[in-house]
Every structure is written in structure tokens, then in C-alpha cells.
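User: Need the bound-state model for phosphoribosyl ATP:
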Amino acid sequence: MNDVLNGLYEVVLDRRDHPQEGSYTCYLFEKGLDKILKKCGEECSEVIIAAKNGKNEETEEEICDLIYHLLVMMAQQDIPLARIEEILEARRQKIGNLKQFHESDHNT
Ligand SMILES: N=c1c2ncn([C@@H]3O[C@H](COP(=O)(O)OP(=O)(O)OP(=O)(O)O)[C@@H](O)[C@H]3O)c2ncn1[C@@H]1O[C@H](COP(=O)(O)O)[C@@H](O)[C@H]1O
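Assistant: Bound-state model below.
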């Protein structure tokens, strides 16, 4: 999953830095932040509706649309994907440590 996300983010960064004809990603960068944020909001709502309707295949597709548009927003804001990975990893370790602490507390 990390490789796929990193690969996609590289493409998005490349589109941002090298505009080209016919690219939807370039179209979003050209339109600017408000358009990118509007798409993030729309895609988020579509994920919610698909999940609420219990349609897993549709939900999966909408999640992909949302992740793609979030990556475009991150590129527009100069947020490295590595920073998100770092934060998630720190939380995983912190929460894992807290659970271990509580478990050992209960066992004593
Ligand atoms: N992952 C995606 C991806 N996911 C969704 N989309 C586009 O997001 C749009 C969402 O559809 P909508 O109907 O909501 O929007 P729309 O009506 O087409 O456009 P709007 O006028 O609403 O902005 C579609 O045009 C999809 O093609 C994506 N476009 C590109 N990518 C990736 O980006 C790479 C580069 O794409 P280009 O920049 O187009 O070369 C591709 O190879 C893909 O890997």
C-alpha cells in the first residue's frame, strides 16, 4: 500500500511541477485550492453515502477518489506524504505502548 501511495504521490507532484495537456491533476492545480478542497468535500460525502448504503464496491472506489484528491491537496499545500506516515507511525507506537501499559497494570 505504501508503495502504491508513494508512487501516486510522485505522479501528483510531477503533474504539479510539470503542467501538461489533458491531465486531470494539472487541471485541478490550475483551478487552485478552492476547487481541490471542493473535490475533497464531494468525494468525502460520496464515501459516506456509499458506506451508508452498504455498497462495498462503490465505497472502495469512492475511497480511492478521496485519497487521490487528498494527495492533490497535500501536494498543493507542500505536505510530504512521509510526514503523514511519520505521524501515523508515532500514534501507532504511542497507542500500542499505552495498551501494553494498561494490560501490565491489570495483570499486577
Ligand atoms: N487516481 C487518480 C484519480 N482518481 C480520480 N480521478 C479523476 O477524478 C475525477 C473525479 O470525477 P468527478 O466526476 O467527481 O469529477 P469530474 O466531473 O470529472 O471533474 P470536475 O469538473 O468535477 O472537477 C475523474 O475525472 C477521475 O478521472 C483521478 N485522476 C487521476 N488519478 C491518478 O493520477 C494519475 C495522473 O492522471 P492525470 O493527471 O489525469 O494524467 C493517473 O494515472 C492516476 O494514477
